[in-house]
Amino acid sequence: MLAQIDVEFREQILNDYQGVSECQVCDKPDYLVPIREVAFSFFQESGFPTLKNEDWKYTPVKRYLNEPFEVDQEDTNTIAPADAPYFGKQLPGYKIVMINGRFDPEQSELPDSSQCTIAPIIDVLREPTVKERLSKSRNYGANPFLAMNTALFTKGIYIHIPKNVKIDHPIHLVHYAGGEQKQFNITKNIFVVEEGGEAEIIESYYHSGHAPVSFRNSATEILVEPNATLHHIKLQKAHSNLRMVEHTEVEQKQDSLYNNYTFTLPGMNFVRNNLNLDINGSNIESHMYGLYLTNENQLVDNHTLVNHREPDCESNQLYKGILTDRSRAVFNGKVYVHSIAQKTNAFQQNNNILFSDDAAIYSKPQLEIFADDVKCSHGSTIGQLDDEALFYLRARGLSKADAQSMLVNAFAFDVTEKLVDEEIKAMLNEEIDKVMTGVIS
Amino acid sequence: MLEIKNLHAVIDGNEVLKGLNLKVNAGEIHAIMGPNGSGKSSLASVLAGREEFEVTDGDVTYKGQDLLDMDPEIRARDGVFMAFQYPVEIPGVSNISFLKTAVNEVREHQKLEPLSARDFLKRTREMQELVQFDSALANRSLNEGFSGGEKKRNEIFQMAMLDPTLAILDETDSGLDIDALRIVADGVNKLHSKDKAFIIITHYQRLLDYIVPDFVHVLNDGQIVRSGDKNLALELEEKGYDWLKKEPVTS
């Protein structure tokens, strides 16, 4: 039940559901009504996850929810401050401005409509691709936030890349958060890259810090069709007043490539990423790269799930963490190789460096293999900087601080070097360097 | 240049150096030989400043200063170089950018201007040629995926770049084939001058076919048990170390 959270917040959620289901002006396609009903009744029953939920064992969400939040209040007057210094601002490309989950076309810089379709999700619920994505059965048990999201969403963005279209510049989603009240925002995004299409989607986040706490419950459904490519980059750095759960479901079809890069840097005091990949065709390639560099009392949780359902595919996960101060991180990665998925290559690696006695990491790499002709590996390390390497660098004249910083950057570089986008790579390396200089000296 | 007096050192509760004395003057090449476990690498480690080794007695003076009082990076900047027996692989740290930082740290300490990008490049090319170090390797991550011989050659390349006053080669010859051995030896011979000294730690005599030492010392059980000229090395090659172990210290 919802008993564990603030009474007002609970009422808000109930009211919001009534609002969504009784809304007169909203589009309520027939297929969606039962989907919302199922999701809501599930959520009403389960409530937000507690530590008893295996998938949330080390992630006490209650402490981040225990506020009198206002759920999805209309805030159409809020505009994004044009000078907001969000992380990634200097990156070139198209810009999609999202304010508390609501698409703001006025402030956006969109690609030509011949290149792709970009629309508020609520306007395209009858699109077959949208219907198909929303009708997918999802594991609400592991993801109560997703149940809530599906039941209540009215905001979010739909990005559709047509067949054989290669978007000429990255599409940069900038998620602004904050308002007069403590906000809880629900947003549902759908990205579809049709056969042979190619796109790069970057996500940035912003909270001014002057506004009260905001909680972002975001769910993104992605379809990468045959022979299509999607590079998906999350630059998770914002003020500590922003908390979020970002759920991402990706379905890939044959011969497609999906690259996910998730960078979480000091700032937001709670970030939970769920990244679920459905490898649903042969000859698919998927890469999932994560880097979390945490400080103060941040909690960053990455849960991944890869389902190899077809033969001859490759998935590769590399998540690295550098934890300082009292921060905590969780990595939980699961790879299922179904019995039909012969010749699968699936790799999963999670490496962590603890920079403080008070930091903690919970790492759990899991492989479940039901096919017999596969190459799979998984591993996890937790440690400090290598003393032998430190001595080597010092023995060549580098100061201890410089040597440490060089080793930390090298550790992180392993992930950043995987970025194809050189500008993002340079921006991140500079930021990591800046953060670590503060930690080491 | 270097004077070691009655050096005692302990690691993990074991005394590994038990009153070692050695004097090295500028321009000299000293070879230190000895059986496994005699303390050869411990000596190199103490001189380079490995913190796991605790010096319990004795002192080491380098260019008139107390070497043991200096942090490893200060020793390096002051011209002490150790070629590691087992160079570490450091993925993600570029060989060349690391070396540029190191070279400029050393230069700054010696009150020299940092090398410009162009001068650094020029020097890199010269030294790569000198020690026949493949430029493709120089641009890779530090020692990552290098063969044993490539790692050792990288040590000599770094030595050439850093231009030390006192170089300690800790079993640089072990695991090298004859061609690599010759390249390493050539590098040392070309870098050697009247202002510089070398301490070459080796288990085998064969490196000394290419680098002719002024002195050969035999280390056993944490002490130098015999010193002589290059002929001592040949004698060791012939007789092994056992005859020295049995004899009392005479030097």
UniProtKB/TrEMBL annotation, chain A:
Transmembrane segments: none
Domain of life: Bacteria
Domain SUF system FeS cluster assembly SufBD N-terminal span(s) in chain numbering: 27-172
GO biological process terms on file: iron-sulfur cluster assembly
Domain SUF system FeS cluster assembly SufBD core: 181-411
Leader sequence segment: none
A Pfam family recorded for this sequence: SufBD_N
Family to which this protein belongs: Belongs to the iron-sulfur cluster assembly SufBD family.
Protein name: Fe-S cluster assembly protein SufD
Lineage, highest ranks first: Bacteria, Pseudomonadati, Bacteroidota, Saprospiria, Saprospirales
TrEMBL record, chain B:
GO MF annotations, alphabetized: ATP binding; ATP hydrolysis activity
Ranges for domain ABC transporter: 2-246
Listed InterPro entries: AAA+_ATPase (IPR003593), ABC_transporter-like_ATP-bd (IPR003439), FeS-cluster_ATPase_SufC (IPR010230), P-loop_NTPase (IPR027417)
Record keywords: ATP-binding, Nucleotide-binding
Family according to the record: Belongs to the ABC transporter superfamily. Ycf16 family.
Annotated PANTHER family: ABC TRANSPORTER I FAMILY MEMBER 6, CHLOROPLASTIC (PTHR43204:SF1)
Record's protein name: Fe-S cluster assembly ATPase SufC
